[in-house]
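Dear colleague,

Thank you for sharing your sequence with our group. We've completed the structure prediction you requested, and as agreed, I am returning the results in plain text so they can be pasted directly into your records. Please verify that the sequence below matches your submission; if there's any discrepancy, let me know and we will rerun it promptly.
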Amino acid sequence: MRRATYHHGDARNAILRSARRLLERTGAATLSLRQVAEAAGLSRQAPYNHFASKEALLAELVRDGFVRLAADIRAAADPKAAAERQLAAAGEAYITFALSEPTLFRLMFSRELVELRKYPSASKAADDTLQALAEIVRRIDKADDRKGLVLASWSIVHGYAVLCIEVGLEGRRSVRQRAAQFAGLLTGR
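Please find the predicted structure tokens below.
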């Protein structure tokens, strides 16, 4: 059978779109460049024209995930709101992202399949996500140890998100309440 889309005008983006769709269905470990090419309607060689390896393709998905997560955190935290509410909104955005795309979320924090330091743009996007949270923590009046508070904030929401994904701790119905509860703990209110 002959493929109608063999010569594709935007192969790189078609590969990334197909990889995103397949990621949630197959998981990162079993995802193959061959599957991605076939799903995109491209030749088996096409992914190698844009990505040196499967890890490079996954690193681009990780980069995109971190870019979107940082944008979600920044968009959720209204700078006019009280610091505790900003932190709660950021936590809610973080947990919601994790629950919406659990396979991508796992991949973003797994060094088993993607070593971020080998991919500067993905590493920068990860750092920018932490920076988005740090910007909110800087607004908290009583933050004597801002670095520690950033780490604690990230650890709490990340741990909660992982528990929700991996063991079904709680569903989406509890996200807003838990995020507010965590923010209150962290701000001492």
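Summary note from our side: Residues 53-187 form a domain with the Tetracycline Repressor; domain 2 fold (CATH 1.10.357.10).

Kind regards,
the structure core
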